[in-house]
Amino acid sequence: MADDRLIVALDVSTMDGMKQIVSSLGDSVSFYKVGMELFYAEGEQTVRYLQEQGKHVFLDLKLHDIPNTVAHGVSSLTKLGANLITLHCQGGPVMMRAAADAVRESSEKLGVERPLLLGVTVLTSFDDEAWSATGGQLPIADQVIRLAKLAKESGLDGVVASPLEAKLIREACGPDFLIVTPGIRPSFAATNDQKRISTPASALQDGASLLVVGRPITQAEQPQEAVRLIIEEMETVSK
Ligand SMILES: O=C(O)c1cc(=O)[nH]c(=O)n1[C@@H]1O[C@H](COP(=O)(O)O)[C@@H](O)[C@H]1O
């Protein structure tokens, strides 16, 4: 059975590649993420296919632009009916507020369920060295908390962050704020390009609402077995 706290990242570039993963995982996965690789290549049909399969959809396009452009961008995405969409918190409070207002207005106007809006804080591929190289002044965790609070104040439903920051975000933003954590690495998986990582159980224990897992499942020799092991670990932490 699926654990609806698990989101599998479909980082492939074709409909066929996506369909192969979705059909091989069957009922064991209920939530999928479509990111820029798949959406730029195959467009809206990716979201429609997942909806037809009865799956929840996280449309992760990480918008980052001036407030007017992002507001119109998220309005265009709202009509697709995804459950979650992302923008970069670094776009600032005016941009986040404009996006939150635009999503509310356009979902009401279209009569579709409002997608939840998530702000990406500091990408999980950053370590301290890379962070300093970009001019980051605060320690990464402090910056993440700062952006999470700003996202909440600006009307966003939650944030994307590393599982290493989940506990601090939960403390700062309260029980109802969504915390979505990529950078999940079960003990059997390779780290790849991720830097700030943790295991499925520890992310949930620290307050993550949803876990995003890509390559440890999609590139496993036996993806179904990888999902089974991850869900088994997740089930040790109550919802
Ligand atoms: O927004 C995201 O989903 C995201 C934010 C972040 O900080 N780090 C991160 O890895 N992601 C996404 O989460 C997925 C992680 O994939 P794997 O590293 O293969 O498990 C990828 O699709 C990334 O685009």
Please name the defining characteristics of this protein:
TIM Barrel, single chain, 239 residues, 11 helices, globular, alpha/beta, 8-stranded parallel β-barrel, binds orotidine-5'-monophosphate
In short, what is this structure?
The chain is an alpha/beta fold and 239 residues long. Helices cover 44% and strands 15% of the residues.
List the helices and strands and how they pair.
Layout: E1 6-9, H1 15-25, E2 31-34, H2 36-42, H3 45-52, E3 56-63, H4 67-78, E4 84-88, H5 93-110, E5 116-120, H6 128-133, H7 140-153, E6 158-160, H8 166-173, E7 178-181, H9 200-205, E8 210-213, H10 215-218, H11 223-234
Parallel strand pairs: 1-2, 1-8, 2-3, 3-4, 4-5, 5-6, 6-7, 7-8
Helix pairs in contact: 1-3, 4-5, 7-8
Low-confidence region ranges: none
- Write out the strand line-up for the largest beta sheet, numbering strands in chain order: 1-2-3-4-5-6-7-8
The CATH level-2 architecture is identified as Alpha-Beta Barrel
Note the total helix count: 11
Major sheet: size, sense and barrel closure? 8 strands, parallel, barrel
- The ordered H/E elements are EHEHHEHEHEHHEHEHEHH
Number of domains: 1
Dominant shape: globular
Q: State the distance separating the first and last CA atoms.
A: 15 Å
CATH class value:
Alpha Beta
CATH-defined topology: TIM Barrel
| Helix fraction bin | 40-55%
Task: List the ions, cofactors and other small molecules found in this model.
Answer: orotidine-5'-monophosphate
> What kind of oligomer do you see?
single chain
The proportion of residues in beta strands is 15-25%
Rounded mean pLDDT is 97
Structural class: alpha/beta
The CATH homologous superfamily is called: Aldolase class I
Number of strands: 8
Indicate the radius of gyration in whole angstroms: 17 Å
